[in-house]
Design goal:
Blueprint: E1 2-11, H1 15-24, E2 31-33, H2 40-45, E3 60-68, E4 73-80, E5 83-93, H3 94-109, E6 119-125, E7 140-142, E8 145-149, E9 161-165, H4 177-189, E10 195-199, H5 205-212, E11 217-222, H6 225-237, E12 245-249, H7 256-262, E13 266-272, H8 275-285, E14 289-301, H9 305-314, E15 318-326, E16 329-336
Parallel strand pairs: 8-9, 10-11, 10-13, 11-12, 13-14
Antiparallel strand pairs: 1-3, 1-6, 2-3, 3-4, 4-5, 7-8, 14-16, 15-16
Helix pairs in contact: 1-3, 4-5, 8-9
């Protein structure tokens, strides 16, 4: 199946108006491209450490939508920045849709600057945007861990720990530098009989790694229900005993009841999140650890390294243990006094 992709060249100030016109015509999923920089408030909300370098904003924007080829009624297909948004029923045949769109653009142009409002057509084959990334996820090793996606065959060598992962919508395939840095620390410190807490578990890869090394119990928690579900399913894929491997959902920073539920006395707590979350977490991480317990924190861009180090040094019950780096990313470890 092929799709007709239509792209309207317009102005950034007209994006909302044109998006509204398309929605009125029954097309709800849209792709918007522009060079408008992210505001500081949006940066904070999204916990972005570093912004992409964009060309200068010249006021031009492009609004795209997709129409399924075929006779009769058509289905508009939209993409967001995070992937496929789904099929949306459009009540007009394609030519009528385009004719009505042009008429509404003319009306809008009488009231505001919508730019040239040209409509460019491209033909694109149908793709599974949510699954195409899987072709890039192949089995690979980090130390003694062999990370294998569920859809790829692989066999562990003697002495290797096999981890099967289907991340779904959660972070954590093991390919990112921050995850590898954490896996290296888990391999160095993990041993049979320890208790481990994974804060912000994502796909569960780090919690599973600790289990594979013989941890007596691992408790994983994530603020995102989809991530917690992925971590739960990945535990089953790896045949983990539910009494040893448990997953919870919640916000450790804001939920006192959850912190009480997590308890303390852990030999290891790992947080592969973001520096802006680790900084406030450093003040409470020690309460989960037994004396000498290790706090592994990563997801830290090099520009935020000192912020995390200072937060750990300011914590009354933690002392800095080690700092490791890979590329632009940093892993900061501390121990409970």
């Amino acid at each position: 199946m092929e799709w007709n992709k239509y792209t309207i060249k317009t102005t950034t100030q007209a994006v909302d108006v044109i998006s509204g016109i398309l929605m009125e015509l029954g097309i709800y999923g849209l792709e918007v491209q522009d060079h408008v920089p992210i505001s500081e408030s949006d940066k904070q909300k999204m916990f972005i450490d570093i912004l992409p370098v964009l060309p200068p904003d010249d006021g031009t924007a492009y609004v795209s939508f997709y129409v399924k080829q075929g006779k009769g009624q058509t289905a508009g297909f939209g993409m967001t920045v995070s992937g496929a948004d789904g099929l949306e029923e459009c009540q007009l045949p394609e030519e009528e849709l385009l004719a009505e769109l042009r008429e509404r653009l003319k009306t809008a142009a009488a009231f505001m600057d919508i730019g040239e409002a040209s409509i460019q057509k491209e033909v694109t084959p149908e793709e599974d945007w949510n699954s195409n990334w899987k072709s890039f996820f192949k089995p690979f090793s980090v130390g003694r861990f062999l990370i294998k996606p569920t859809w790829e065959p692989a066999e562990a060598a003697p002495g290797q720990y096999m981890i099967e992962i289907d991340p779904g919508l959660a972070f954590g395939t093991g390919q990112h530098e921050t995850t590898r840095l954490c896996l290296e620390q888990i391999e160095a410190e993990g041993k049979p009989g320890i208790r481990v807490l994974d804060l912000g578990c994502g796909s569960g890869i780090l919690a599973i790694a600790a289990c594979k090394m013989g941890a007596e119990s691992v408790l994983a928690v994530d603020i995102d229900p989809a991530a917690a579900e992925a971590a739960q399913e990945n535990g089953k894929l790896n045949g983990l005993d539910p009494d040893r491997y448990r997953v919870l959902t919640g916000n450790v920073l804001e939920d006192e009841k959850l912190r009480q539920q997590l308890g303390g006395g852990y030999d290891m707590a790992v947080a592969n999140i973001l520096a802006d979350v680790i900084v406030p977490l450093a003040a409470t991480a020690g309460q989960f650890l037994k004396p000498g317990g290790l706090f592994i924190s990563s997801g830290i861009l090099y520009t935020k390294e000192q912020d995390v180090v200072q937060a750990i040094q300011a914590a009354a019950d933690l002392e800095l243990d080690s700092i490791t780096r890979e590329g632009d990313w940093v892993c900061v470890c501390a121990r409970k006094k």
